[in-house]
Structure formats: C-alpha cells, structure tokens
Amino acid sequence: MHDPEFFRRLVVDAPDGVLYCDTQGIISFWNAGCQRLFGFSAEDAVGQSLDIIIPSTLRQRHWQGYDATIRTGHTRYGAGDMLSVPALRKDGTRISVEFSIIAFRDGAGRITGMAAILRDVTQRFEELKALRKALAAAKAPT
After folding, report:
1. Whole domain around residue 28: which residue ranges?
2. For an engineered disulfide with 20, which of 29, 36, 80, 123 has Cβ 3.0 to 4.6 Å away?
3. CATH assignment at residue 66
4. What torsion do the CA atoms of 111, 14, 124, 90 make, to the nearest 10 degrees?
C-alpha cells in the first residue's frame, strides 16, 4: 500500500500521540493525538522543546538519556519496548504515558531526529497503584 493519504491519515489522525523532534529535542511534528493527550495544539508545540511535556524534576534525567541516544545511536526503546513516565499537560496536570521511539538516521547512520508514539495510561497506573496499596494493607499484620 503506497497511498500517501493512507500514511498521512495513519499518523496525523492516529488516536495515539505521534511527535517528531530533532537532535536538540525541538518538536517539528505534533499530531492530533498529542493535542488530545497534552492539550497543546500543533501551533503551540511545534518549535518548542520537549520540556513543555517533561516535568521539571525529570528533565535532567530525560536529557541525559536523550543526549546519550543521539550520541551513541543506541536505545532500548526503539525495538518496541515501552517506557512509562510522568508527563505534563498544558494545564499543568501530570499524566502517566507509555511510549516507544523511532530513530531517524542519515546515510552515515547518525541519528537526525526521533519520533515517539505515546499513549495516556494514567487510569491504568492509578488502578495498579490502588491495587498495590490494597494488597499491602491486606498483607499487613493486624
């Protein structure tokens, strides 16, 4: 299937968030799913740093990993493994997201940018947290 409209709709209209950023972490693509997840329109997000969705307490760790991936060309999240992290919405609320990445490379194999496919898993995360708490309470001596 080589219909450009098919691929455009697959990415642009996907319910999951799809974004692309350069090696500096500047967003250059933001789909409707990202707008739904994070509350930023494409006009708000494109040209901005990923910091708009990364909680300030996690930025240093994020950028260390991001820079290492750009520098070495290796990531454990590019083969379908999912990373679960807190993220920020435009209104400042925190959500939990899972994502995988796709590295884009030039002819020499150097990473030129990365795309992420993201999904809001806040409800599942909160349910698991409540179940763990209930289990711990049930196991506690009375």
Report:
1. 4-139
2. 29
3. 3.30.450.20
4. 80
- Report the distance separating Cα 137 and Cα 118, nearest Å: 33
Helices and strands (DSSP H and E) totals, the chain: 5, 5
Pairwise CA distance, residues 108 & 90, whole Å: 37
pTM (two decimals): 0.82
Q: Which residues contact 39 (CB under 8 A, 6 or more apart)?
A: 89, 90, 91
Where the chain has pLDDT below 50, the residues are: none
Q: How many structural domains comprise the chain? A: 1
Give residue-wise pLDDT tens across range 112-128: 999 999 999 987 766 77
